[in-house]
Input
Amino acid sequence: MNSLRAAVVCLLLACAALSSPTVAVTVTPSWSVLPVPAAAPPVTVTDLAARGPGEAWATGYEQAADGLRPMLYRWDGTAWSRDTTFPGAGEPGWLGKVQFVGREVWIFHNRDGAGEILRRSAGAWSSVALPRTLWTYQDFTAVPGAAWVVGEDDTGLKVLHHDGSGWTTQATPDGVRYLMGITARTADDAWAWADTDTGTTVLRWDGTAWRDAQVPLPPDSNVHTILLEPSGRVTIGGSQYTDGVAGTYLMTWDGEGNAWRTTHPPLGDTYTEAMVRGPDGALWLPVRSDRAFQSKYARVDGRRTTFSYGPERTNAIDVKPRALARSGSALLSFGTAEIYGSKPNLMSERLGG
Output
């Protein structure tokens, strides 16, 4: 009798779940391996950007006998291939952030110490030289009508701005020591995170000047990344230190004057630089895996955080996704995998698609 009663109860619950409008059943596709032609290890992945399901670019550098060599890979919707047609492909240097600007692809290129921007238009590469050589090139961003390169030279902080025709140097507010990163939504809406006399500060460019954005960052915190979206939404990711222990925080602003909302998802001290908005509307980012032979990803949807693992890799001892990008209805991941007995080399994975 008890077993019959239990069966009836289970049947009723199942029927209620199927008929209730508040219950949603979601089937999550699994991560799959995308083969990548090997580079000269050890390799470092810098960035990944995608424009729809049929085009993505991954940047970084490999280790040659005489130093670093730039490394560029292209995804065509079917397979990854290496691109060596850009200026300086065989010279010492490295590739940084990649951006889509209208129909073009823009990539920051350190070419044997001198900075330039690679531009791919109508299938051909060209380059735009920077007006000066910097000691360090910290970050780069580009949108239609504008591009920025930030770094330092012997005179201090430099914010180099390109307006589509030429370069100028922009001033920052007093007390700014160093710009750690920069991103932009439009030519008149750029954001940067800076080290200042009073700690980490978020700056905003309004088309006229750089100003303090008055973001109420958590105490004893820093910023890893700022994610700008076409809707106006802004998401900041960083670390907050409590009793000397780092924990990840996220801040979100809807772009309409409402207050910033801060959450502390269970991500440990995850570095959030690779965070992206996925095709499902949630935030996705790679996290440190507790399985040497698999990558691990976090999905943050409001106050709910879930995790998924990448494919198992035979004899892998360290699998590290370094960058994520939305590619149509899928997520692309690009990073490194170290197989026992060899140095880390390139790997790529895809969720959905």
Residues 1-27 have pLDDT under 50 and may be disordered.
